[in-house]
Amino acid sequence: MITCLPDSYIESFIEEDIPYGDLTTHLLGLGEKNGRITFVTREETTLCCTEEAVRVLQKCGASVVSYMASGTKLSAGIEFLAVEGPASSLHAGWKVALNLLEYASGIASRTKRIVEKCKAVNSTLSVVTTRKSFPGTKKIAIKAITAGGALPHRLGLSESVLVFKQHTVFLGGLAAFLGSVSELKQRARETKIIVEADTVEEALLIARSGADIVQLDKIGSNELSGAVMAIRTANPNILISAAGGINEANAVEYAAAGIDIIVLSSVYFGKPSDIGVSIQPI
User: Fold this and answer.
1) Is 78 helix (H, G, I), strand (E, B) or coil?
2) What CA–CA distance (Å, rounded) separates 34 from 63?
3) CA contacts within 13 A on the Cβ side of 17
4) Is the domain of 21 the same as that of 90?
5) Closest to 109 (Cα-Cα) out of 138, 149, 136
6) CA distance linking residue 253 with residue 273, whole number of Å
7) What is the CATH number of the domain that holds 33?
8) Is there a single domain that holds both residue 35 and residue 149?
């Protein structure tokens, strides 16, 4: 599912950073001198947006020498991208490419660590991410989480059915809504019906309704662990997901509870990857 961003995105990133040319490079008179720019990991990193970084530098007039694909996991000190061209081209694309790489790889690296840790204790677990990415960054965020081994929980409101209490409050409450789950499944035969629970008691009601997935929100891993068996007894076919406050520090505890799906937003926010850059004349 790792896809490339459209040209319009790449061009807008460049336009944002260099709308009228590079004054420093122009005044120093070094724009025509040939050079090489290389990007190196400074820490363990799962790469993301190397393809976009290449296209940024190419659109600025440079030529790719070598690069490693998004999703590649590297230790510190590994060169993963090298590009050559006029100094004016290298300086024009340098920071745009680096910003893309550091932010996207930060998301990918956090995701990869969580996926690996969780799979070690629950091999069938799915790690999925919410639609809480910062506005305007969704394409980058989705590419990054898939590079890290996760999948999107839902890309938006158009392709999934996830019923919150903010919906059922208009329908007479949770219990009243659950009586219509069978009808809802008939109307959306190709779509899983997910219903969120705020308590274990609500989760049991949802399980008995015939919903496809019960999503437990902000329920601690200890309480969740004790509830999984009861939920599966109520409906052996239901999938159990947990959401709310799950991050790298506690994800393994949730995975060990025996659930099917972890839903999180935390990977979108945190320190960018530390990537070193060198520009040298050739």
Assistant:
1) coil
2) 11
3) 18
4) yes
5) 149
6) 25
7) 3.90.1170.20
8) no
Does residue 72 contact residue 47 with C-beta atoms inside 8 Å?
yes
Q: Identity (one letter) of the amino acid at 138?
A: K
3-state SS, 107-134, equals HHHHHHHHHHHHHHHCCCCEEEECCCCC
- Tell me the whole-structure pTM to 2 decimals: 0.95
Q: Is 261 left (phi over 0), alpha (psi -120 to 50) or beta?
A: beta
Task: Give the pair of three-digit tokens for residue 59.
Answer: 């659109």
**181 with 226, same domain?**
yes
Which range of residues forms the domain containing residue 192?
121-268
Shared domain for 231 and 146, answered yes or no, is yes
pLDDT in single tens digits along all 282 residues of the chain: 667 889 999 999 999 999 999 999 999 999 899 999 999 999 999 999 999 999 999 999 999 999 999 999 999 999 999 999 999 999 999 999 999 999 999 999 999 999 999 999 999 999 999 999 999 899 999 999 999 999 999 998 998 999 999 999 999 999 999 999 999 999 999 999 999 999 999 999 999 999 999 999 999 998 998 899 999 999 999 999 999 999 999 999 999 999 999 999 999 999 999 999 999 999
Q: Give the tokens for residue 152.
A: 């999107």
Do 92 and 126 sit in the same domain of this protein?
no
Same domain, 142 and 222: yes
Helix (H) or strand (E) holding 9: helix 7-17
| Beta carbons within 10 angstroms of residue 74's beta carbon | 18
Residue count of the chain, please give it: 282
98 and 125 inside one domain: no
